[in-house]
Amino acid sequence: MVVKALFLNCTLKYSPEVSNTGALIRKAVTLFLDLGVESEVVRVTDYMVRFGTSSDEGEGDEWPLVLQKIKDCDPGDRVADLVWGTVVGGPAGH
């Protein structure tokens, strides 16, 4: 079974501008790859995300696309257990 992780880069900078957040995420993606975790990075400024409190703010809102990517990923606790058990060296869940 393949574990998938999604990183949301919420930098305020637009592509292709260099982002320190992006640099940090690239390091994490590399670490996760070594653990067999598939990763995807979503740079939120690359999407038209409208302000609001619902999961879909209407025509032109691309947040539903990002939200579906979040829903398609494995729960964070599974990834955290994998990282804790492998990187930190302790038993998963402890």
Provide the fold topology.
Blueprint: E1 3-9, H1 20-34, E2 37-43, H2 63-72, H3 76-88
Parallel strand pairs: 1-2
Distance between the termini: 22 Å
Spatially, the strands of the biggest sheet line up as: 1-2
Our count of domains comes out at 1
Low-confidence stretches: 86-94
Q: What average pLDDT do the residues reach?
A: 82
Largest sheet composition: 2 strands, parallel
Structural class: alpha+beta
Radius of gyration: 15 Å
The total count of helices amounts to 3
Secondary-structure element series? EHEHH
The total strand number stands at 2
Name the overall outline.
flat
Q: What share of residues is helical?
A: 40-55%
- Strand residues, percent: 5-15%
Notes on the protein architecture:
The structure is a single chain. With 94 residues, the protein is α+β, with helices and mostly antiparallel strands. It has one domain. Helix content is 40%, strand content 15%. It is built from 3 helices and 2 strands. It has a two-stranded parallel ribbon. Strand 1 (3-9), helix 1 (20-34) and strand 2 (37-43) form a beta-alpha-beta unit.
